[in-house]
Design a protein that fits this description.
Length: 381
């Protein structure tokens, strides 16, 4: 029955995304379950002209579906045939008024840690637009075809420089780390050629780090590609690091005190014991970064992404984490005294033994967060 009900729900399934960062809802009237990627699709069906009814699938049933509500939950075991058909399910998207058609497999396979993959993996609630049958995402759809082509083929498009920058913004929003890395190469090359304000090139940096005690204090390095370099112990204090690409770099014990690193990219970088006191990292991408024992006191971390980051024993006193995404982050033993967590997403985060005294958590999403042993004395919840 579950399989037949799932097929009925899947034909009706074209959903509207309210908010990627919104918390998942639960409906006690669910009547059918079926797998959706690594998660399950729950279906709540209503009989026409009645209150919540039960979805029935027999051919002689007089029931009609007046509405189908779809949402997601942790996985159950279902036949392999259902799983295989799910990945090829057609999805209709309305991106800022531009319409696209693709499959779940395309959206989830190449970039499994992206926002798009999460939207269809069960980690977030999605709802159908009953009038159009499209998922609506409130973003500019001008370059979304390039995103779909990247997800299909893994090829970075050839664009005008202004278009590269616009596509980069969309890639950062959807957290498409592979596309971000691919776009950064042409962007960095053009910045080095065209921006006289950038005082050094990647080649200059590589030459410098071969010596000991390297310092780039106050230097403008905006837009450089410094990915995968060993920059441990380097002093970047008060430097301009806007849009710098530090992906997978080794920055252990590096100093970023007072830097302007707005929009910089640190995904999967090693940042253990780094100093970021007073740094401006607004909108920076730190997903998957290792920030164990890092000092981020008084840092501006508004709109930052720390998804899956390791922040064990990190110092976040009085840091501004407004709208930050810390879903699945490990904050065990972290000190968040006086931190601003307005609209912060801490779903599934590990906050065991974290210091949260007198922190305002009223507008913080803590669904599924581990708070065992956390100091919550005086915390506002």
């Amino acid at each position: 029955m579950a399989a037949r009900t799932y097929g009925m729900a899947r034909r009706a399934w074209a959903v509207h995304v309210h908010d990627f960062h919104s918390s998942a809802r639960h409906d006690t009237n669910t009547t059918a379950r079926s797998p959706h990627g690594p998660y399950n699709l729950f279906v709540s069906a209503r009989r026409a002209g009645t209150k919540h009814g039960t979805a029935r699938t027999k051919s002689n049933s007089s029931y009609t579906l007046s509405s189908v509500t779809c949402f997601l939950s942790p996985p159950l075991q279902f036949p392999r045939s259902i799983m295989s058909s799910d990945s090829s399910s057609i999805v209709r998207l309305n991106i800022g008024g531009k319409k696209f058609c693709t499959t779940i497999d395309t959206l989830t396979h190449r970039e499994p840690d992206s926002m798009l993959a999460a939207m269809f993996s069960g980690r977030h609630t999605v709802c159908r637009d009953p009038d159009t049958g499209y998922i609506f995402v409130d973003r500019d759809g001008t370059h979304f075809r390039h995103i779909l082509n990247w997800l299909r083929d893994g090829i970075v498009p050839t664009l005008m420089e202004s278009d590269y920058a616009e596509l980069m913004r969309e890639a950062e929003y959807f957290q498409l780390l592979g596309l971000i890395e691919g776009l950064n190469a042409p962007l960095s090359k053009r910045r080095e050629e065209d921006e006289p304000n950038c005082e050094l090139t990647r080649r200059d940096i590589i030459k410098c780090i071969q010596s000991e005690r390297v310092k780039f204090r106050g230097v403008n390095l905006s837009g450089l590609d410094l990915s995968k370099l060993d920059l441990s112990y380097v002093d970047f204090s008060h430097a301009c690091l806007k849009g710098v690409f530090f992906s997978r770099a080794n920055l252990q014990c590096a100093k970023f005190k007072g830097v302007d690193g707005e929009g910089s990219i640190f995904h999967n970088a090693t940042l253990r014991e780094c100093e970021f006191t007073g740094a401006n990292l607004r909108g920076a991408l730190l997903a998957g970064a290792n920030l164990q024992s890092a000092n981020l006191q008084d840092a501006c971390l508004i709109d930052c992404s720390f998804c899956g980051a390791d922040l064990r024993s990190a110092h976040l006193q009085t840091a501004d984490l407004t709208n930050a995404n810390l879903e699945g982050a490990n904050l065990e033993g972290a000190n968040l005294k006086g931190a601003k967590l307005v609209n912060a997403n801490l779903k599934g985060a590990n906050l065991q033994r974290a210091y949260l005294r007198h922190v305002n958590l009223r507008e913080t999403d803590l669904e599924g967060a581990k708070l065992d042993g956390a100091n919550l004395l005086g915390a506002i919840r």
